[in-house]
Amino acid sequence: MVRVRQDREPVGGGSGGGTAGPRGAGPGVTVLLTAAMAFSMVQLFLIGALGPRLVGELGISRTVLGLTTTAGFGTAALLSPVAGRLVDRVGPRRCLVALLLLAAVSLALIGAAPGAVVLLAAVALGGLAQALANPATNKLILAAFPAERRGAVTGLKQSGVQAGAFVAGLPLSLLAAGVGWRGAVWTAAGAAALAAGWAACVLPPDPARAGAGPHSTSLTRGAVGRLAGFSTLLGCGIASVNTYLALFGAQRLGLAPTAAAALVAVLGVAGIVGRVGWSRTAGRPGRAGVLPGLLAAGAVGAALLLALALVLPSLVWPGAVAVGAFAVSANAVSMVLVLQSAPPGRAGQDSALVSAGFFAGFAVGPPLFGALVSACGYGPGWLLVAAEFAAAAAVAVPLRSRDRGEA
User: Fold this and answer.
1) pLDDT of 173-216, one tens digit each?
2) Superfamily of domain 212-407
3) What residue spans carry the region label Disordered (predicted)?
4) Residue partners of 46: CB distance under 8 A and separation at least 6
């Protein structure tokens, strides 16, 4: 299913359909890619961080606030296949600039929202930015970096999602306390617009589109579908942990609100370190296909630690670290696998299909977890997460076997 190609990316319009040959871009491009990933998701993190202010000022219910996650990830999942084809057709530079502009408009609308309708519409618009994020950034990595650097750069840019969560949860939340939540959101919108201008100045023009070629050695359609299924199951579990971990700490373990929130911060930091480290490892020949299943298996242990925290509360902390180190990191490794194996002209589409699965899991996972917890308690809820991670590990096994055979 997987045949790794790390050293045959055509210059300018090859496998990634990128912007230039892989001559080794400077650190500024890596920072820009990381920022793009952060801005693609920051609107959802901001709504979560500013939720109490939004509920109070806009008069919306907690149910409507929860629907913002469904609107964002649902839109991203539905539009990802279209976004992938768009990136392959018009080029990653144009799409990256468009992504940042869409994020700026979405944030500006959130800051101006008078009520629930505009808020949900703004988050749905941000879903299009999410859909463009992985296809555009992955193709730029193929174009701008040599094969031996792509794994590490992919991990760094994927860590941008966690960086966006940190910025929303701390600096922008502190700013909201001083200038109001609308001022904080508009500040983020202005930063996204500035990043779009930076991208337009730094990145060279997109070359002519390259065809996929009828005999490309690459991820087969079946392997792309398997990675998408793996990402869906992974996303279900990760989203459930992200959404309910702090509430679990406060309601069942007796943690103070600050300590409960720190659980999410610990998970985020572990996710950043894990994505960078595991993606660097995945960049080595013969490793990328092996790691998704192993990381998902490690995530099973993480979910079981959270379940055991009902008996021994201190286990919640290593459980949070393990979710970040294994489950969150596995998504970045999936992107490395796509980058290593994408045929000419299809890197955007393959990235988008795998991302669509991940977004679908984020849209579906928390409601299922919440319904089970309401009916049966947190113990069965964490066991459901463990089962989702175990299923993801099983789905990834053929990727491991094929990669070992062809390394």
Assistant:
1) 889 889 999 999 999 999 999 999 999 998 878 866 655 444 34
2) MFS general substrate transporter like domains (1.20.1250.20)
3) 1-23
4) 107, 110, 168, 172, 184, 185, 188
